[in-house]
Amino acid sequence: MGLFSFIKDAGAKIFGSKKRAEEEAAKKAAADNAAHDLAEKKQDEYEERKGSELESLVNVTWGLGIQGLQVEVDDDTATIYGSTDSRANKEKAVLVCGNVEGIATVDDRIEYTPSAERTIQGGSDEESRFYTVQKGDSLSKIAKEMYGDGGKYHQIFEANKPMLKDVNEIYPGQVLRIPA
């Protein structure tokens, strides 16, 4: 699927205060030049912890079942690896990672291979579109724009579960899946 852009300062606040970590690192660097190495190490540890938290969010909290999931964070970019036989779960994994404060870009490297069973069952396997929520949007307004029918808002709601828990709880900057 490639690179996806998100609004870095919007989304769930799961990482704690990066600003506090940066301030601590700056103080130590001023006290001792060797602290620069320590600050880099702390930043690397912080980014590794962010990757682990995103992995947990994708597979434990949201139960998307991405096999071999690995998330690497470098500054504001999350790169996600793994494999799945569900296009919907692949797309949701991108959104789960991108709809987190501090992440501006998701590099999707998840391998998608539809299972033979899914292929036999038929149905649409088209990629979803993504939509960034604007101020004043509602799911019915988005459904009207995307499908020409505001009553199809439940399709959008269902496609974004479990990230969405309530049809009225969307926020500007959030990115949603819009199924084909």
Topology:
Elements: E1 2-5, H1 18-31, H2 35-61, E2 67-74, E3 77-84, H3 87-98, E4 105-112, H4 116-121, E5 129-132, H5 139-147, H6 153-159, E6 175-178
Q: What are the salient characteristics of this protein?
A:
Membrane-bound Lytic Murein Transglycosylase D, Chain A; globular; two-stranded antiparallel sheet; four-stranded mixed β-sheet; alpha+beta; 2 domains; 180 residues
* Tally of separate helices: 6
Strand residues, percent? 15-25%
Assign a percent range to the helix content: 40-55%
Poorly predicted runs: none
Rounded mean pLDDT is 85
Q: Widest sheet: strand order? A: 1-4-3-2
- The tally of strands reads 6
Number of domains: 2
Describe the largest sheet. 4 strands, mixed
The coarse silhouette is: globular
Radius of gyration: 19 Å
SSE run? EHHEEHEHEHHE
> What class do helices, strands and sheet pairing give?
alpha+beta
Distance between the termini: 15 Å
Question: What does this protein structure show overall?
Answer:
By secondary structure, this protein is an alpha+beta fold. The protein has two domains: 2-121, no CATH class; 128-180, Membrane-bound Lytic Murein Transglycosylase D, Chain A (Roll). It has six helices and six strands; from the N terminus they run E-H-H-E-E-H-E-H-E-H-H-E. It has helices at 18-31, 35-61, 87-98, 116-121, 139-147, 153-159, and strands at 2-5, 67-74, 77-84, 105-112, 129-132, 175-178. The chain has a four-stranded mixed β-sheet.
